[in-house]
Design brief:
about 350 residues, alpha/beta, about 20% strand, 13 helices, seven-stranded parallel sheet
Length: about 350
């Protein structure tokens, strides 16, 4: 039985990489493998679903710790990655190791001659001239394969580590569109106003959640009384609730918290809005398109590919471009046809590629 280790920053915070991994492991036949998952940080949302034979075996630190303790643990992991590995991985006997995201703290691969895969879910141009450039340069040199998930991700890797180009392969994230459609039919007990938009994901500065609230403020100042739904949780949630009240928007800005099934809300939206600073390949855009909901996005990884030259989404450079794009979608909504385009992002295709790469 082939033994596979998968390391991921968290498997319990509701992030995109977590859902991608959960979809792969729950929709492929891995009965002939022993697969163990290590998560660096245990969150509050509960573990993503897993088959019974696959376990999360270890976590490094937990959100329950006070901030000062977490900072100490982060610095320890950053400075002593090999020690961190020994804590997390008790048995160095795996046949395949997959680092399923660029993470911090990070851990190195085994020193043994095994298959080593680095799966990069985000653009890494920000590594340039930082401690990460040399650290991850070593990891990529050790890797057997480096998986990129978008044009932007691949370009950022090649620009920083041109000697690793031959190791690169592209595997698009896969999605269970039938399941998304079925979940979208679940009844909700909220009355979603007609002119509503949403943001899905962690509510934090990196995701541009604060900037999204500023867009709603500008829209209302211009007379567009749209409703905004935040679907997710995060560090900025409390402060954004306070700001929404200060702006007089409490009636229009809604915080739904983390939702295991966001699709039952998403289907009612006129567009999805993301002002994120960085993404590898924003899966929520694909999920949104599968329900014929277009997106407005900053120029993050994957957005260009998914916008299809503006047919399915608008990439914006500043707030005013975002305002114009949102108004256009809300005021002139027409159904978009995405079924043929989305075939490249099917879950079946990704599961097949995953199985190929670990064999």
């Amino acid at each position: 039985m082939k033994k596979v280790l998968i390391v991921i920053p968290s498997y319990s915070k509701g992030g995109g990489a977590e859902k991608i991994l959960s979809n792969i492991l729950n929709n492929g036949d891995f009965s002939e493998y022993q697969i163990d998952i290590v998560e660096i940080d245990r969150g509050y949302n509960g573990l993503e679903d897993l088959p019974e034979n696959i376990k999360v075996i270890k976590s490094y630190y937990y959100e329950k710790y006070p901030t000062v303790i977490r900072l100490i643990l982060e610095q320890f992991g950053k400075r002593f990655p090999r020690v961190l590995r020994k804590y997390l991985v008790k048995k160095d006997d795996y046949d395949v190791e997959i680092m399923f995201e660029v993470m911090y703290p990070d851990i190195p691969f085994s020193k043994r001659d095994i298959k080593k895969i680095y799966w990069v879910h985000g653009s890494i141009e920000g590594f340039s001239n930082t401690w990460r450039e040399s650290r991850f340069g070593k990891y990529f040199r050790d890797a057997t394969r480096i998986v990129s998930i978008s044009n932007k991700t691949e370009k950022s890797i090649i620009d920083l580590y041109p000697n690793q180009k031959e190791k690169l392969i592209r595997i698009y994230n896969g999605y269970n569109f039938k399941n998304i459609l079925e979940k979208s039919k679940e009844e909700i007990f909220d009355n979603i106003p007609e002119n509503s938009i949403c943001s899905i994901g962690r509510i934090e500065e990196q995701k541009g959640s604060d900037r999204t609230l500023e867009l709603i403020k500008i829209l209302h100042e211009k007379g567009y009384k749209y409703h905004m739904y935040y679907i997710g949780t995060g560090k900025l949630e409390k402060s954004l609730k306070v700001k929404a009240k200060e702006y007089g928007l409490s009636e229009y800005v809604h915080f739904l918290g983390y939702q295991h099934n966001p699709y039952k809300y998403l289907k009612y939206m006129k567009c999805l809005v993301s002002m994120s600073k960085q993404e590898g390949f924003p899966g929520v855009y694909v999920e949104s398109l599968s329900l014929s909901v277009p997106f407005v996005s900053t120029d993050v990884g994957g957005a260009e590919e998914l916008s299809r030259d503006g047919e399915f989404g608008k990439i914006v450079k500043d707030n005013m471009e975002a305002i114009r794009a949102i108004v256009a979608y809300v005021e002139n909504s027409s159904e978009i046809k995405t079924s043929d385009f989305l075939m490249d992002f099917s879950l079946e295709k990704q599961v097949k590629r995953f199985q190929e790469i670990i064999n």
